[in-house]
# Entry
Amino acid sequence: MVNPTGTSRRTLLATTAATAAAAATSTGVAVAGEPRRLAPQPPPPELRALLREIDHRRIEATVRRLAAFGTRHTLSTQDDPERGIGAARDWILARMREYARASGGRMTVELQSYVQQPAPRIPVPTRISNVVATLRGTTSPDRVYVVSGHYDSRASDVMDHTSDAPGADDDASGVAVVMELARVMATRRTGATLVFAAVAGEEQGLYGAAHLAQSYRERQADVQGMFTNDIVGSSTADDGSRDPHSIRLFAEGVPTSETPREGEVRRSVGGENDSPSRQLARFVQDVAGPGVTGMGVRVIYRRDRYLRGGDHIPFLERAYPAARFTEPAEDYAHQHQDVRLVEGKQYGDLPEFCDFPFIARVARVNAAALWNLAQAPGTPRGAKILTAALTNATELVWERGPEPDLAGYEVVWRETTAARWTHARPVGDTTRHCVDLSKDNVFFGVRAVNRAGLRSPVAFPTPQR
# Structure
């Protein structure tokens, strides 16, 4: 059997990237044509310029300043100007406002606070504050992407709010990434809205992130992606081995927010590896790999580390795609530990154990992902595979996006055993396409392309009768 253009199924699977070159316009935007094998998306010059501005010396200064507050425990003092979480909060707020002044009014900074009533690890009513910098998009301002790090810290006893808990790696490193991103992006115009959040209450139970995620859910915000950076400060493992050019990205398979009906559909079509968070992770690998950032992105097929959790989980619980960046191998002597010297071995989460050029590369991975997300079209909505008729061809439909620079769409596919998308077929500015391949044998997806050739994350279609 052949498709309407006369291309056989065997040819569809074997076509290489060279075939697609003839189907591209002079601007590099693919028009309707033959499929091509996928390759990482090259960075435009403006992204390369942005990445060059990320400064490991500024990141180091941020980590050392946050560690110098002594403790940033959520239950620590909030009115001492030199020590405790209140002093750290005020310092972060002042720096973010300083960055916002360079944005021409496009970046606003707010202190998002609430009183957490007694709950696990919160023995008394406690004010929890997030510092949230929002860079409003110019063409798609209602589409939102969030990046976070948590600025609270802890000692060995999670309820010890008076002992030193410098929290350099966990998680001044993540906050430093967020603040450096806010600094370099404040001067840029983005299509979609970017949010840079330093949240509190993580060590006590993800309270700050939950409040932030719920605030978006209550106003029905279109959050299409969220990354948390938690423990991204060191490239050295507990055995002394180093891996300075890779970062883990944890991305769940079965969605945390999945309903029973959605679970039935997933089981029937085999979508365990195609959650929105997995598509987000694949997108990061495509746009922020070694050739762009100097870092390999190792996607881990888990929601988080074994039996552990971070600030992306409240977003997952509210059906927002989210994933977690964490260093390649943790050294547990330098996190969640009282600062002490035992038989010549130093314990404690101190700045001296951080690798600041490594943190800068992590920031570049985040920057490349966020910039591409914000400048590309949004993830297509309403992607479906039509199943009313039994056929070995596969017909897909989707909704057209609202972006003013939308050029068209690509249908992508891969073998069911493949981790990443391998083929793409440009289909033009349409909302329907038929591929002469069986939906029984491969996985399909749809992604949008703008006039600059930037591509959205993939939408995984569900069946429609």
Summary: The CA atoms of residues 156 and 203 lie 11 Å apart. Residues 1-7, 13-30 have pLDDT under 50 and may be disordered. The first strand starts at residue 36 and ends at 37. The first helix runs from residue 9 to 14.
